[in-house]
Amino acid sequence: MQHFQALVQMDTSDPPGNEQPAAAYLTRVLEKEGIPTQTFALEPRRPNVVARLKGNGSKRPLLIMGHTDVVNVDPKKWTHPPFSAAREGGYVYGRGTLDDKDNLTAALMVMLTLKRLSVPLDRDVIFLAEAGEEGSTRVGIQYMVNQHFPDVEAEYCLAEGGRVVRAGGQVRFASIQTIEKIPRAIELTASGAAGHASVPLLTNPVVHLAGAIEKIARWEAPIRLNETTGTYFRRLAQISPPEQAARYRDVLDPNKVAEVDRWFKANEPQHSALLHTTATPTIVDAGYRINVIPSEAKATIDVRTLPDDDPAEILDLVRKAVNDPTVRVEYGARDVRPGGTSGLNNEAFKAIEAAVTRHYATTTLPTMSTGATDMAYLRARGVQCYGIGPAIDNEDGPRGFGAHSDQERILESELHRFVRFHYDIVASLARSR
Ligand SMILES: [Zn+2]
Known about the structure:
Elements: H1 2-8, H2 20-32, E1 37-40, E2 48-53, E3 62-67, E4 86-88, E5 91-93, H3 101-116, E6 125-130, H4 141-147, H5 149-152, E7 156-159, E8 163-167, E9 170-180, E10 182-191, E11 195-196, H6 205-218, H7 227-238, H8 242-251, H9 257-267, H10 269-272, E12 278-286, E13 292-293, E14 296-305, H11 311-322, E15 327-332, H12 347-360, E16 364-369, H13 375-379, E17 384-387, E18 391-393, H14 397-401, E19 409-411, H15 412-430
Parallel strand pairs: 3-6, 3-7, 7-17, 8-18, 9-16
Antiparallel strand pairs: 1-2, 2-6, 4-5, 5-19, 8-9, 10-14, 10-15, 11-13, 12-14
The structure holds zinc ion (ZN).
């Protein structure tokens, strides 16, 4: 709790990103306990900290990581000041309590505990406190993977991206992230003759662009399950009431899944997004004067492809959906995080499942994130990464207490349980037998 509060009390908002105080604190704590550390910084105020407990080398390393930066705050909106780490009613309040100073503190405590107990290790355990996760990964995970990979190279990695879901105060299931969709951008450019708006033209690019956007919104990408999403729906069916269970089972039936997807789109959009690539229009840029038909109009589409989709094939399908020779459809610039998946049939996933059973007595659901995380960069280098996290009340998000909210908070009891859970996974994967 002391380390957790100290870290939450540091304003590491990104932007501008000043992770230096947190990095210095972690270095001090680790070194004081006799764990050597190294600092890697692309920019002086944005260091990454690496610490390593040596094993006997009979197995390849395990990486445990958390990010030190947090998203911005609007202090006026907070009841408890955002960097107070105030404790009230069994909660700790503050920016970063759920994202990601919980994982950061848990990983720190795992290192300190392994060291204090002199646990003999079959593999190195590497701790990484990364800068820049919230939108400036070039100083954080990208820098570490591209410039200092040997210092963090591992067989397995544990990071943020999962959680244990509680509803009505009861644990429902544990969600463990094993794979994520890949963000891409598609740009639409409609072209036609410019002219006076008093004479409507059939070639008006604004109208053609609007039609293209409409068609993309209605486009149905091919549905395909992977190992993670298939297991997710199968296990979700096992723990759901009959009506919902039947629906989740229908996802696994190729003859019924399209109909379920239509129901999902209206009622459980997060589940629809797991079934296929999605395309969401987000930016429209058309026209500059009321009386001028512009010669060009543009739109940007946020695309999230399934990790194993062929991007060229997806572009082709979107072009066919648009089906308008005056509208150009192309990929635009975006930081494309590489794909990669983590297995469900290895010792790491089994250790996580066993720890979930021991600490939470519930089902483990492997999950695919629709958003992107830092784990993508490590998976692209062959590291099997798993997203874990503490138990969170499902009701908390909609009530404004979630990650990135103006009243971010964590249950104290769940922070402690998460540390024990985290330690248990690491010990079972790394301890010498
Ligand atoms: Zn985070």
